[in-house]
Every structure is written in C-alpha cells, then in structure tokens.
Amino acid sequence: MDFLVSPDAPDLLAVLQKALIFIVVISLVVFVHEMGHFLVARWCGVRVEVFSVGFGPELLGRDDRRGTRWKLAAIPLGGYVKFFGDADASSGRADEKVEFTEDEKRVSFHHKSVWSRIAIVFAGPAANFLFAIVVFASVYGVVGQAAIPPVVADIQDGSAAAEAGIQAGDRVLTVNGRDTARFQDIQHLVTMAHGAPMTITVLRDGQELTVSARPRLEVIEDQFGETREQAVLGLIADGATQEIVRMGPAEAVVAAVVKTYDLVEVTLVTVGQMIRGERGTEDLGGPLRIAQLSGHVAEMGVISLLMLTAFLSVNLGLINLFPIPVLDGGHLAFYAFEAIRGRPLDETAQEYGFRLGLVVIVGLMVFVTWNDIVRMIKG
C-alpha cells in the first residue's frame, strides 16, 4: 500500500485522516520555521520564553531546563517563538517604562544589536528554504527525479505552437533564453508567462530555429478534478520516454536548489501578475484548500506528500519575507531602516505599522478562505 489515505475509506474516516495529515504537515512546516528563529536566538544569547506550534489554548506543554515553555496549541495554523523582552507573540517590544537589569539586557531580544535581531528574524524563513532543499535533495538522491526529454511528440491542432510552426520531432532548446533540459522546464516557463509572448528556440534536423508563440489561456481540469485557467502552448510530450533519474549527493543538492528557486520565482511572478491585474486571484488558496490538497496528495503516496511539504515550506518562508508588519519581512524592514538610520523607527509608527499589517493579514485570510469555500461549492 503506497498511499496514506485509502480512496476507498468511508467518508467520515477519510475526512478525519485528511484532517490529521493536514495538521501534521502544517505543524512540521511551522516547527521548522520557528526552530530557525529559536536556534539563532539561542546562538545570539537571547532567552526564549515560549516555543509554540499553533495558537490559542495549550494542549500539551513542558518546560526545559533553560526555562523555555514548549507547547502544542489548539489552532494549528501557525506558531511563534516568544523571546525575553517581547510584549507579545509578535515580538512587539515590552513597555519602555520597564527597567531591565544588566543581566536581563544581555538576554533580551530587543537589547541585542540590530544585526543580531536581523539574523534571528531571517533565520525562520531561511530554515524553511533549507528544509525544502534537504527534502528535495533526499528525494532526488534516493528515489530520483522524473525527467521527460524536451522533444515534441505531437502538436495540438490549432494551438499556439502549431501557428508558430513548431513540429513533431523538434527538440526545444530554450524558452525566452532559458535552457530547457526537461519537458517539465517548458511547462514551468509557459505556466509562469501566463499568456505573454514567448521566444522559443528548437533544434530541427541539426539546425536551430527560433520562433515566437503566444500561449493561450484555457480552462483546464487538473489531476484532482479542480478547474483553473492556465496558459497552454500546445506541445505534447511522449510520456513513454519519461525516466526517473537518481542523482549523486552534489547533483541532488544542485537540483534541489534549482527546484526551490523555481518555486520562489513562480510565486513572485504570479503575485506580481495578480497585483497588475494580469491574472485572477481565484487560485489563491487558504487552509481549507491546503487541507484538501494534502488529502489528495496523501492518496498518491509518502513521496508525493513529502514533496508537498517541501513546497509548503518554501511558500511559508517566502510569504514571511513579504514586507508586511507582523510578518518576519515587516520586522526586517524596520530593522533595515534602523541599521541605515542609526536608530529605531519611532515606537508609535511601528505600532501603527503592526496594526495595519494585522488588518492586511486578517483580510487576506478571510479572502483566501472565501476562495476555498467558493471552490468547494463549485466542486
């Protein structure tokens, strides 16, 4: 049995299994993120008062010998590390009127140098990226990476590729100047372009030819039965040529770094397209969609679930770097301002920034949850 959730399980049992898998996956990704903050904080001499996976009421907890409270909370949608000197879980500074002794200042987060604070805050997202690279590299080294040669087996009639003059048997060398070692690379670049014109170089009968094509936006149904708008070029690969390539340690790490970079790139490009109005926001998903997706992927096996966990880890790390107060990126923006200016931003300005950031985050959560509900109703 290579799946974690049986597709033949009774409905209630299947729902419970999927919910449990979702909680485990999210909790693991959050744990990795917070552990990054925790380890670098300890390295910098900061006292950690609380390490929490989840928000809300504590379900399980214990104190270690250094006084850190490790706990599992009831709402598995995040987590936090509370440092000595923090007023709350968002690392807001305690009341300035509170007097710290010299010993307390040595272990207080807010009394550390700005560079130490930057390192501690950045360590959370960095841990997520590193975790994803380790997972991808492990899979590529132990199981292998699926690869289809970038050779066109057939062309969809009337497609953008057909109009551009691409023919069966052509080997795609580059798309928009970027090498395509695998057919999957072509798919990645076409999806990211989202209907923008593309320059494609192919090898035909020993000669290189460069053509222009504009992929068309079509509504497609994915392997999980969901419909979405996607750019389609019209190239058809020969699935029979797919092979699983097992890699050595160095090659696997390089491929894992490239995979992580690709995920970051496509996320940033997609967000930019949404902001500019070039792409709809209906594909934005929240907790409900992640839970649903986790269940579907679990039916495909452990390796697929590991790859999804790495994907979510990259997204968590990247989202936390967005310059929104409350998120790590917001803190980093304040600290960068402090490093350049030579003194912290005014406390009142920071307070208003955090309030605005909280409104933005809550608004985004409501929006993506609404998207999830609409998608489930339509499904």
Written overview of the protein:
- With 379 residues, the protein is α+β, with helices and mostly antiparallel strands.
- The protein folds into 2 domains: 200 residues, no CATH class; 101 residues, Pdz3 Domain.
- The protein is 50% helix and 20% strand.
- It contains 10 helices and 12 strands.
- A 4-stranded antiparallel sheet has the order 6-5-7-8.
- It is elongated.
- The mean pLDDT is 86.
How do the SSEs run, as a string of H and E?
A: HEEHHEEHEEHEEEEEEHHHHH
Strands in their spatial order, largest beta sheet = 6-5-7-8
* Average pLDDT number: 86
Beta strand count:
12
Cα radius of gyration in angstroms: 24 Å
> Tell me, what's the shape?
elongated
State the domain count.
2
Could you tell me how far the N terminus lies from the C terminus, measured between alpha carbons in angstroms?
Answer: 28 Å
Largest sheet: 4 strands, antiparallel
Please identify the structural class as seen in this structure.
alpha+beta
Total count of helical runs of at least 4 residues: 10
Brief summary:
The chain is an alpha+beta fold. The protein contains 10 helices and 12 strands.
Using brief descriptors, characterize the structure shown.
alpha+beta; Pdz3 Domain; 2 domains
Annotate the secondary structure layout.
Blueprint lengths: L10 H33 L4 E16 L5 E15 L18 H6 L6 H29 L2 E3 L6 E2 L4 H5 L6 E5 L2 E2 L3 H11 L4 E7 L2 E7 L2 E6 L5 E6 L2 E2 L6 E3 L3 H27 L11 H12 L3 H19 L7 H14 L5 H32 L1
Helix pairs in contact: 1-3, 1-7, 1-8, 3-6, 3-8, 3-9, 6-8
